[in-house]
Protein 1
Amino acid sequence: MSAVRLPTPIATAALAVSGLLLAGTVSCSAEPGPAAAQSRATPEASATAAEVFDPMVALERADKSPYSADLLVKTEVGGVGNMRMSGRVNLNTEFTGRLELRTGENTPPEQAMRMEMVVTSDGRFGRDLDAEGGWQRLPKSETNVITDYAEYAKLLLGLGRSARKGVEERGGVTAYRLSGRLRADQIRAIDPSVHNSMRTSGVSSFKCDQWIDENGRTVRFEQWIDFGGTEGHNIATFADFGPAEKFGNPM
């Protein structure tokens, strides 16, 4: 059986950047400048006044039960798409899910990576989709809990009125956009994993935009990060919410 390949240099850089977004999910052993600000996606449409809701009320009323969602994370390093992660995951609970990770189209063939990963309650498993061989157990992650993005929204709301950007349409969903810069010391209390990634990467703060729906669930989260002199940009979208699902050992 062939071994699951270690991430290539390009993949490693992308994983490091995306690790500041989802430190518990992508670890794998097998305020930005004006240009970055202008690169944000344009809202699809403005909602009518009748559709406006208070984001703080939505967060306070949000169901705290575990749930599942389709997750898509795109990571850009230096303005180039370097990593894509997609799949189905459980949120608001111990992180489990089934994901595919792949490097960007511009990645040199010798550095490309395409890997499938399953995270269960008792381990992580991976397989190289571009090589012969089956599933293998991966080293246990330091953390196996995905962040509760509601806590990020509360931090942004704590920045004051300037963080409230209003209601927009995102993927057919009416969502309230919050925007601001969060410091490492603020992150420490709500997400120790991301705080540790920030500390080890020398990142003191990051700019982020977050869109929450009227049920208090995050539908989109973006970050702009100065990563060792190189700009990193994460875009995470969440869709098709449903009850928490069970992901079993694929071996």
Protein 2
Amino acid sequence: MLRAFAKSVLAGALIGAAPFLIVSMMFGLFGLIRIERLSDIPLSLFLAIMPLLVAVPIVAGGAVLIGLPLTAWLTRHARESALAYAGVGIIAGAALAAMIVFVIDVYDGYWLAGMGAASGGVTGWTWWASARQPNAR
């Protein structure tokens, strides 16, 4: 179960961070080209994966606060389905991203809700695909 949870969180974080990850990877690789000291290598690699390091705790927090209680509720009421997990993931991901943008007061940052929706949908669907019992619908 823990492996399925980690898999779904990493898949969702990769989708949510993908556009930023492309740019940061380019900057990180450019930093590796211009190395002057040995200590520049870890900093360049850190820059390359920074969006993923930001996305993983956000997605994991959403999965723990929303996804796991949802799983308990759906299991108890025999309502588990791929649509239920992906649909709630899309809505919760968009809402969580919009809430974070609102709280940290990012001007015109509500487009990030689309990325949150994609991340939540992938997280929910991956959780469904990797953690379900074989007799579930």
Protein 3
Amino acid sequence: MTPTILTCELGGVESVNADYAAHWPVAGGHLYVVCDGINHKDIVAQAVSLFCSTLRSNTQQQDICNEKCFLNDIEQAVKSVESEFGTDIAFCMTIAVVLEGEVLVAHCGDCRLGYLTASGVDWHTVDDVPYLELYKNGSITRDTYLDLRHLVACKIKTGKALSDVKVFTIPTPEQGCLLLCSDGFWSEMEPKLVGDIEECKHLIKSELPNLTKNARDNFSLILV
């Protein structure tokens, strides 16, 4: 299914866009991916692009038959990045493979996946940040959490085992409103996304020009 919104923007501060957002058909469904390269450098942007193009080739050549096969496709794509660019390339990602009656999800870092609902966004991924529980229990403020979340140790990193990548399956959203985004989007928009589905859609569309001009980070968004 073609996304209602797909955008991947530089924002108003950074000079290199190391985010990536794409989608393509796979056997029995459709795949959507958002990545966020750590450190805004050209080499990181190229590495993230290679990861996604390799993943596309892998997932279109063979069926994504289960979570193990899906993880293997991701591992092969990371290895292609390591072969081309060496170790110490780091990035976050969230991937959704929408199949009949279910969504296969892969996640690492602080890109997110959620469903728009009658009362805002129901997030189905958890940020890979050690300080998340401190933020949830009120020990640190939201601003402090946002400042502390950029830890390379919690991301995909070439030359490192992919133990932090989570692959799991969830039911398809009843309203068909699937949201994937990088932290550059949710860090700016999360407090505002509290209305029903149509209100959230309208807000997202209306805020995109402002984010494109003023966002403090690269940002990516796919809304299906």
